[in-house]
UniProtKB/TrEMBL annotation:
It comes from Mucilaginibacter robiniae. GO terms for biological process: carbohydrate metabolic process; N-acetylglucosamine catabolic process. This is Glucosamine-6-phosphate deaminase. Keywords: Hydrolase. Residues 7-229 form the Glucosamine/galactosamine-6-phosphate isomerase domain. The lineage of its organism: Bacteria, Pseudomonadati, Bacteroidota, Sphingobacteriia, Sphingobacteriales. One of its GO terms (molecular function) is glucosamine-6-phosphate deaminase activity. It comes from the Bacteria.
Length: 247
């Protein structure tokens, strides 16, 4: 389904409360929640609300295991632009998650070690029973994770080449496009698809045209997010701006 909220603030509350509800319901029966997480501007408000729920309403992340979608390659974890730094600053440093339960693709590996790392990432998710919930943003190329145009619907975690537009969009964070890595390690479309629930979020007019393609366009690897139309477990959560081109 597609759910449009008047403002990003309301949409963010809805997503954060769904995550919190899932964590609490699993906790009640002594279970763990396996979350797939995203970086970028889009989920920041959700993370802020989760931090607030932790600090003010006792939401605990002790029984939460996380897998991030992606990381630039190569990338040192302590670099300002790494997704490790992003997740620490926006979420992990402010909640009670056990660091050993946090998984983010490793941007420091030698090239010949990447494939084995990716297989292991997939296996870890499977051994835990799969992702309960994956949250996603969407890039202007239509990428989810860093599955750029051309990605196969059954793709797994792997090393990919970033699209030129994606590197332009990241150039501010890196002080120039020439400093943006050309590659990344990302969960695949197939990995994302196996999650029991998927929430794709998009805010503002800036995402309106790619959201129109993703939600209403022909299903094609030219716009990888269109594959989500094939899943019954996807919720598109939009604000009015991002939904403004939908018919
Ligand atoms: C981030 C990721 C990307 C972003 C997308 C949108 O982990 O996988 O697909 O979700 O590039 O980025 P923002 O939210 O910065 O517009």
């Amino acid at each position: 389904p597609v759910n449009v909220y008047p403002t990003q603030k309301e949409a963010v509350k809805h997503v954060a409360h769904r995550i919190a509800g899932l964590i609490r319901s699993k906790q009640e029966v002594g279970g763990q929640t396996v979350l797939g997480l995203a970086t970028g501007v889009t989920p920041i408000g959700v993370y802020q609300e989760l931090v607030r729920l932790h600090k003010e309403e006792g939401l605990s992340f002790k029984n939460v295991i996380t897998f991030n979608l992606d990381e630039y390659y190569p990338m040192q974890p302590d670099a300002a632009q790494s997704y490790v730094t992003f997740m620490n600053e926006n979420l992990f440093n402010h909640i009670d998650i056990d660091q050993s339960k946090v998984h983010i693709p490793n941007g420091t590996l030698d090239k010949d070690a990447v494939a084995a790392f990716c297989m292991d990432y997939e296996r870890k998710i499977e051994d835990l029973g799969g992702l309960d919930l994956q949250i996603l943003g969407i890039g202007r190329t239509g990428h989810i994770g860093f599955n750029e145009p051309g990605s196969a619907p059954n793709s797994g975690t792997r090393l990919v080449t970033l699209d030129d537009l994606t590197r332009s969009d990241a150039s501010r964070d890196f002080g120039g496009k020439e400093n943006v890595p050309t590659k990344a390690i990302t969960m695949g479309i197939g990995t994302i698809f196996k999650a029991r629930e998927i929430i794709l979020m998009a805010w503002s007019q800036r995402k309106a045209s790619i959201i129109k393609k993703a939600v209403e366009g022909e299903i094609s690897s030219d716009v990888p997010a269109t594959y989500l139309q094939l899943s019954d477990n996807v919720e598109f959560v939009l604000d009015a701006g991002a939904a403004s081109d939908l018919t």
